[in-house]
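Per your request, structure below.
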């Protein structure tokens, strides 16, 4: 698959921040085009292995977990995203949505 080739090539460059950004962007593409939530989750986790406090990767991981109905895990990551960026309106909105799913 093209994604694997791109990621493998970037890993050889040993530039964690660039690779993290690429993985986050790939996660977004996988979510938007393929709606493959499990693949997006893997990409975001790999990005977080490189840059553990990546706001974008944490929020993306939260959303991919949310879409898989893993609400407890998603809530945990939405909280982490908001701790890093309290003005993240997407994570704030999605956190409220995930919390409402648990109440029902």
């Amino acid at each position: 698959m093209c994604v694997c080739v791109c990621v493998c090539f970037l890993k050889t460059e040993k530039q964690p921040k660039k690779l993290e950004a690429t993985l986050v962007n790939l996660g977004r593409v996988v979510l938007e085009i393929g709606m493959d939530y499990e693949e997006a989750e893997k990409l975001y986790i790999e990005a977080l292995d490189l840059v553990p406090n990546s706001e974008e990767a944490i929020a993306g991981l939260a959303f991919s977990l949310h879409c898989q109905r893993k609400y407890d895990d998603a809530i945990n990551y939405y909280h982490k995203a908001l701790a890093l960026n309290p003005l993240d309106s997407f994570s704030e909105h999605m956190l409220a949505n995930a919390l409402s799913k648990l109440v029902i």
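The CA atoms of residues 74 and 98 lie 7 Å apart.

Regards,
D.
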